[in-house]
Design goal:
Layout lengths: L14 H15 L19 E9 L5 E2 L2 E2 H14 L3 E13 L4 H18 L2 E10 L7 E11 L15 E4 L5 H11 L15 H10 L5 E3 L5 H13 L2 E5 L7 H10 L13 E4 L4 H9 L8 E7 L6 E4 L5 E4 L12
Helix pairs in contact: 1-3, 2-3, 5-8
Bound molecules: magnesium ion (MG).
The site of magnesium ion (MG) has 4 residues, from loops.
């Protein structure tokens, strides 16, 4: 595309819009359904239980260590579908672009979306682009919606945790939030920090092959593991006990959290899943997770108990107990 920057005309629906779609969006996102170029995507008949979700992405900065807003927009929606046990199939992508956005940056974002969609085996089948005047948005916002299909016999919900369940996490906490914060603040920390953003559907489908009777799957994104566990405790009407010494955090992330005054339990993840299952399923699930690239550091972090209902508490390193509340307010704005 010959234009160097996004102009208001690229959102006009006229010639510039057509050039943007033909020269930039299509080469990266095209597939037989998108190429129909009609007002809606004709998906046709689908077999199975349909699962549908949507999310908007406003992360700042749009490029960060380990990913960018495009990868996040695909993975976030893919993961929300996978959290219900569905195989993600089709995505929509709506773009709000700020006038003046360098075309080169948009191209990098589209390449990331293409790569993430290919890895997750989903197609972006419909989309929209609007351009707003300089200052009316910050560079680029993306909304993605997704449709997934769930095979029969799976019943996964935040309501299904029951006393005796084991709580598994597939790796280290807080990597996304800390990588974005470090990129945003331009912190020179002499350590490598990288977001964990990743499509989890392949790993989830593999654990469901082994254990279709998993009770709860949820990705601890905004609000982190601490807030997500509280949501599940409330939804299921159970208590959740976690063990401080078993919570996986790298020394690098722990160190940066201490510098920034953040608790890794409340920092966002974008490639993590909390799995609640019956004790007899744990070994099989951990085996599958630990042999998958996105689950190498999987471990047990706690268990479901009968009391106190709707609460999360932590057994501390020194043998005490601490209540883990939901995150109050926003710890880190524009993290996803
Ligand atoms: Mg989610």
């Amino acid at each position: 595309m010959k234009d160097k920057k996004i102009l208001l005309g690229h959102g006009s629906g006229g010639k510039l819009s057509h050039r943007l779609v033909a020269d930039l969006f299509f080469p990266y996102l095209k597939n037989p359904i998108l190429e129909q170029m009609d007002d809606s995507a004709l998906i046709g008949k689908l077999e199975g239980e349909l699962v549908y979700t949507t999310d908007s992405y406003v992360v700042d900065p749009i490029f960060f260590s380990g990913g960018d807003i495009g990868k996040l927009a695909v993975c976030g929606t893919v993961n929300d579908l996978a959290m219900l046990g569905a195989q993600p199939r089709f995505l929509s992508a709506g773009f709000i672009l700020e006038e003046g956005l360098p075309v080169e940056q948009l191209e990098k974002i589209l390449i990331s979306m293409q790569q993430a969609a290919a890895e997750a085996d989903v197609q972006i089948v419909t989309g929209d682009t609007k351009v707003v005047p300089h200052g009316a948005a910050d560079k680029i916002f993306i909304n993605t919606s997704g449709i997934g299909i769930r095979r029969p016999g799976i019943s996964i919900s935040g309501k299904n945790a029951r006393p005796g369940d084991v709580v598994i996490l597939n790796g280290n906490m807080a990597e996304h939030g800390i990588a974005v914060m470090a990129s945003r603040e331009g912190l020179d920390l002499h350590v490598t920090l990288s977001s964990d953003v990743a499509p989890l559907n392949d790993m989830i489908m593999k654990i469901l092959d082994m254990a279709p009777d998993i009770h709860v799957l949820r990705d601890p994104t905004r609000g982190g593991v601490g807030t997500t566990l509280n949501e599940i405790a409330i939804q299921s009407g159970v208590g959740i006990k976690i063990i401080e010494k078993d919570l996986p955090v790298t020394p690098e992330v722990q160190g940066v959290c201490e510098i920034l005054g953040l608790d890794p339990l409340y920092v966002a993840n974008e490639g993590k899943v909390l799995i609640f299952c019956a004790a007899e399923r744990v070994d099989a699930i951990l085996h599958v997770l630990q042999t998958h690239p996105y689950g190498k550091n999987s471990c047990i972090i706690g268990q479901v108990v009968d009391q106190p209902k709707g609460k999360v508490f932590m057994e501390t390193r020194i043998g005490g107990q601490r209540l883990i509340d939901m995150l109050a307010g926003e710890q880190l704005p524009r993290i996803c």
